[in-house]
Write a structure and sequence with these properties.
The chain is of the alpha/beta class and 214 residues long. It has one domain: P-loop containing nucleotide triphosphate hydrolases (Rossmann fold, 3-Layer(aba) Sandwich). The chain contains six helices and eight strands; from the N terminus they run βαβββαβααβαβαβ. The strands form two sheets. The chain has a six-stranded mixed beta sheet with strand order 3-4-1-5-6-7, sandwiched between helices. The radius of gyration is 17 Å and the shape is globular. The relative contact order is 0.21.
Length: 214
């Protein structure tokens, strides 16, 4: 974008959106993020220590959207660290593993965490990961995922980081919903239109993910 004469150069995006990935450990949150941000996949088990993030800029409806996507650790011992990041999230992806019924059942607990720690108007989306797995290994039918999403009035996708099934659809869908919400909010309150571009303060340096094994 061109900068205004004599003024500070404008950012190279129209919206800066912070997303958060939550769910049990091992459901594939880091793999989904790696597939979306870098279009890559690893068979190694990725253990996130605390929290990590990646950035990808996309274009939606003629607008450039800079996505800052935070990947959280699913282990209980990191819960205090990760819940601190809920408040600034504009969209949250709730991820479970379609081959692990426990991870699906725990989605209700993760939703309670959102209700306790996140903003009231945060956008949410439910993602059943590892949908590429053989049907004999599936523990959670797609219909159950859809029913849970309907119960909480949120959108639902089954996806696979490994086969790249619906990964872009998931992130583009929640980004579009957030963009629409921000645009509508700016129209309702013109004096606060600048708040559509929300800058996340660099308060803490996040811990990095480390590789493990399957």
């Amino acid at each position: 974008m061109a900068s205004g004469g004599g003024g500070r150069a404008r950012a190279d995006y129209d919206y800066l959106i912070k997303l958060l990935l939550i769910g049990d450990s091992g459901v594939g949150k880091s793999c989904l993020l790696l597939r979306f941000s870098d279009d890559s996949f690893t068979t190694s088990f990725i253990t996130t220590i605390g929290i990590d993030f990646k950035i990808r800029t996309i274009e939606l409806d003629g607008k450039r959207i800079k996505l800052q996507i935070w990947d959280t650790a699913g282990q209980e011992r990191f819960r205090t660290i990760t819940t601190a990041y809920y408040r600034g999230a504009m969209g949250i992806l709730l991820v479970y593993d379609v081959t692990d019924e426990s991870s699906f059942n725990n989605i209700r607990n993760w939703i309670r965490n959102i209700e306790q720690h996140a903003s009231e108007n945060v956008n949410k989306i439910l993602v059943g990961n590892k949908a590429d797995m053989d049907e004999s290994k599936r523990a959670v039918p797609a219909a159950r995922g859809q029913a849970l999403a309907d119960e909480f009035n949120i959108k639902f996708f089954e996806a696979s980081a490994k086969s790249n099934l619906n990964v872009d659809n998931v992130f583009f869908t929640i980004a579009r919903d957030i963009k629409q919400r921000l645009a509508e909010s700016a129209e309702d309150r013109p004096e606060q239109q600048a708040k559509a571009n929300i800058v996340i303060s660099d308060t803490k340096k996040p811990a990095k993910a480390k590789g493990g094994f399957c």
